[in-house]
Input
Amino acid sequence: MANIEELNDNNFETSVLKSEKLVLVDFWAPWCGPCRKMSPVLEQIQNEMIDSIKIAKLDTDKFPAIASEYGVFSLPSMILFKDGDVKEVMVGLMPKSSVVSNIKKYLS
Output
């Protein structure tokens, strides 16, 4: 996926919690159909808003501890982080317009 970083236990803190940009983390799993449908939407958003936001993905099957830490039990779940803090949680397949609207609330 172009421009979308794959997160893991080693890079989550640096890439998300210490990021100077707004970060949208897509919590997903390979077996999740709605997650696969959400991916191209997130790629479009990343390409259109590359100066404002970073979008990253975390495979919950490979890194369940991070998902559990943030209370992710349904997929897809997207959590918006700003300055290391959770600002917005979005659960389920969502239209692009809704995701962008939620992101824009936190752009400064």
The radius of gyration is 12 Å. The first helix runs from residue 12 to 17.
